[in-house]
Amino acid sequence: MTDLSAFPITRRWPVQNPDILQLFSLNTPNGVKASIMLEETGLPYEPHLIDIGKNESWTSEFLSLNPNGKIPAIIDPDGPDGKPFGLAESGAILIYLADKTGMLLPGGAKRYETIQWVMWQMGHIGPFFGQVGFFHKFAGREWEDKRPLKRFVDESKRLLAVLDDRLEGREWVMDDYSIADISLLGWVRNLVGFYEAGELVDFASLKNVPAWLERGLARPAVQRGLQIPSKG
């Protein structure tokens, strides 16, 4: 049996099966990247709920695995060289799991093109969609100055147009379903669903993104991953 006691996070969130991958997360748009990827690959894993609403990601135990205090994070008992390995940042986790399983990340030049789209999601889609959510649905909606909301809405529209153009004549961001799609699905779903911003960003006017989102959400592994880990 693998010993994971060197990872302080396991003291607060005890591990039941230390021989399988450990996921520390919540089913947010960033968190579900890891859970969807794990469901798609079929890797056995044990999920641990990190309640960010209770600031659990800022506890010393969680910070020992991700000093940036953000979910998701993982511990792989069978990491590089067969040693336990901890990793944070959703994009890095996607690439790591793709490399570990040989799934959902093509080789050659297509590998770097796929990673390009993952980086695009992390650097643009996530931050801007998240700000739309803040200013449209959460505390920012009370701000009298609506210029910040307009800025983030306008940029989100532009980003959706970029994705829409990319999907012209394609079912997926790359030739086949990949980590590029996984990185994006939760964020686009949240924008039009949980954030209730579909009308704001003219989502219905897009030609390709709505059908792509529907295809992605119809995947059984995506449906499962979107609920893991959930507060219920």
TrEMBL record:
**Cross-referenced PROSITE patterns, in alphabetical order?**
GST_CTER, GST_NTER
Q: Which InterPro entries match?
A: Glutathione-S-Trfase_C-like, Glutathione-S-Trfase_C_sf, Glutathione_S-Trfase, Glutathione_S-Trfase_N, Thioredoxin-like_sf
**Occurrences of domain GST C-terminal (ranges):** 107-232
What SUPFAM superfamilies does the entry give? GST C-terminal domain-like, Thioredoxin-like
GST N-terminal domain location, by residue? Answer: 18-105
Q: What is this protein called?
A: Glutathione S-transferase N-terminal domain-containing protein
Q: Which organism is it from?
A: Sphingomonas telluris
